[in-house]
TrEMBL record:
Residues 6-236 form the AB hydrolase-1 domain. InterPro entries: AB_hydrolase_1, AB_hydrolase_fold, Carboxylesterase_BioH. Keywords: Hydrolase. The lineage of its organism: Bacteria, Bacillati, Actinomycetota, Actinomycetes, Mycobacteriales. It comes from the Bacteria. The keyword Ribonucleoprotein does not apply. Pfam families: Abhydrolase_6. This is Alpha/beta hydrolase. GO terms for molecular function: hydrolase activity.
Amino acid sequence: MAGPAVLLLPGAGARCDGFFPGLADSLAAEPGCRVISQDLPEPLGAAAADLHELVERLGAGPVVVVGQSLGGAVGLLLAREYPGDVAGLVLLDATPINDTVQCRRAERALRAVAFVCRIPVIHRVVKAQAVRASVREADRVQMRPDCAAAHARVAAEADLVSLGRVVAGFSDLSAQFDENGLPRVPAAVITADRKPTHAVRSAHQRIADVLGEPLLCWPGSTHSVHLTHPDEVLEAVRDVLQRAQAGRTIT
């Protein structure tokens, strides 16, 4: 399956290496498929420009962007600001950059956590709680062993102090974001299993509507949908790649 390169973007505070268990290897095994794993650039205000420079330097564009959480939001920023760089989008419970209220709340919460975590003992306690929560979630949804290990590793490695710096100004970016300016490219918009009236789901539905795609939601999926439903995510990426390669035109 020759086609566009795939640009993988993890959530905030995580390394891309190992963030999507099995996904990069499965895609790389496809004939002609190039996979680019990239940590999120900082600061967020310059992330789209930094990724544009990366895509140009590698001669890889246009790419299919696969982003989870804040990585999905950054993928949307890249698509809006540099539409020629993006052949397709796979948004994995993306941070709802098109909902300024939710983004403002998230930024405030993460900056508050970052502030208290400047005290090393509090940082250690909060990270330990996050690791325990990740183990409980992995057990509850019966994650694959490699996905459960990745979930715990991301929680253990998270630098909660730097997260405050990463999200600084995110609500301002959200206020300037217009979903109607997105290019109509093949996409998979995937949301976690929440109530139909949840604000995040509504934001995802608006993105899906603009892109002309159905909103995908798998029972039992969480914010870490790439870990709770890795096989479904792989198939969604393959589908977008195939449609992007076919040069599908959306009118």
